[in-house]
Specification:
By secondary structure, this protein is α/β, with parallel strands linked by helices. It contains 12 helices and 12 strands. The chain folds into 2 domains: 205 residues, Spore Coat Polysaccharide Biosynthesis Protein SpsA, Chain A, CATH 3.90.550.10; 103 residues, no CATH class. The radius of gyration is 20 Å and the shape is globular.
Length: 323
């Protein structure tokens, strides 16, 4: 068995069939499909039981234990050399496994590969294409930190990745320490173990819809604490001069302000005001945010990974000058 496609589910019936069909339609057919369900109360398990394909395995937990537990449970059940953790509302392109397996087999040193992706709406219509590197490349841990500090989660949704099973298990479980950014935390840990392959080709479709967990996190402000702690974790892993830290915290301040506006739109008052206060404390006068928007967001300047673990500022977009 080469690939284990693992889909953690909980009340996932709305988009699950389309997700499963995208796996069965792969040009690369040497896979198993594991669905680990967290005690769904809808038709999720019935949908999986309707398939007679022997490669599909359904495992039902007695009660919901949270997404981190479910991801770890599915990973432990996997028997493949490589693991794809596929979100139940996402889709993968027909040649996704073929191309990602090829990248890993061509470069045995890679711990994982990631790809560009398409954002689609609830009906599957393409909204935009997201890619942070202009060509196929290899990223080290400092590259990943630089990209995350400027762009956010550059390795993207779990659906956009394929991971060596032995590396995923060695990196340790998905952690509740950063429950709202647990995927970024895992990608960071994996990147410290070895290089990461990246292709700009969009090999998965990431669905944006009102019921998505990320939307709930944005409107309730739940992601703020984790974003603060994880940003400090990334900065402490590299040699970041004051200018780099200033820009990084300016970007986080901007994220807090956007979350506050989303909170106000949904009728919240107390936590959005707190978020605005936090933004002003971490970036007084919002000067770092202004510099980030004018210089880094536009691509005039970017972060560069130097010798050792050094980060510096250079001309051009972050990650776009990699060999």
């Amino acid at each position: 068995m080469t690939v284990s496609v693992c889909i953690p589910t909980y009340n996932s019936s709305r988009y699950l069939r389309a997700c499963v069909e995208s796996v069965l339609a792969q040009t690369y057919q040497d896979f198993e499909l594991i669905v680990s369900d967290g005690a769904s109360t809808d038709e999720t398990c019935d949908i999986i039981r309707s398939y007679s394909d022997p490669r599909i395995r359904l495992h039902c937990l007695e009660r919901s234990m949270g997404i981190a537990f479910n991801l770890n449970h599915a990973s432990k059940l996997a028997q493949g050399v490589y693991i794809k953790l596929l979100c139940h509302d996402d889709l993968i392109e027909p040649d996704c496994l073929t191309k990602q397996v090829g990248m890993l087999e061509q470069s045995p040193a890679l711990v994982m590969v990631a790809s560009g992706l398409r954002h689609v709406d609830a009906a599957g219509r393409t909204l935009r294409w997201v890619s942070w590197c202009p060509r196929e490349t290899v990223l080290n841990a400092v590259d990943v930190v630089a990209g995350n500090l400027i762009y956010g989660n550059i390795l993207g949704s779990p659906s956009a990745t394929l991971i060596r099973r032995e590396c995923l298990l060695k990196a340790g479980p998905f952690s509740d320490q950063f429950p709202q950014v647990m995927d970024m935390d895992m990608w960071f840990r994996l990147a410290t173990m070895g290089p990461v392959g990246y292709t700009p080709e969009p090999l998965c479709r990431f669905r944006l819809h009102a019921e998505a967990m990320t939307e709930e996190l944005r409107k309730t402000g739940a992601i703020r604490k984790d974003l603060l702690r994880f940003t400090e974790t990334m900065l402490s892993s590299v040699f970041a001069p004051p200018l780099v830290r200033w820009i990084a915290w300016g970007r986080v301040a901007g994220s807090f302000l956007r979350q506050a506006l989303a909170g106000f739109r949904h009728g919240y008052v107390k936590w959005p005001l707190s978020a605005i206060g936090q933004a002003l404390r971490m970036d007084p006068g919002l000067a770092g945010l202004a510099a980030f928007q004018m210089l880094f967001r536009t691509g005039l300047l970017g972060l560069r990974a130097g010798a050792g673990r050094n980060l510096s500022v250079g001309f051009g977009k972050t990650l776009h000058n990699l060999a």
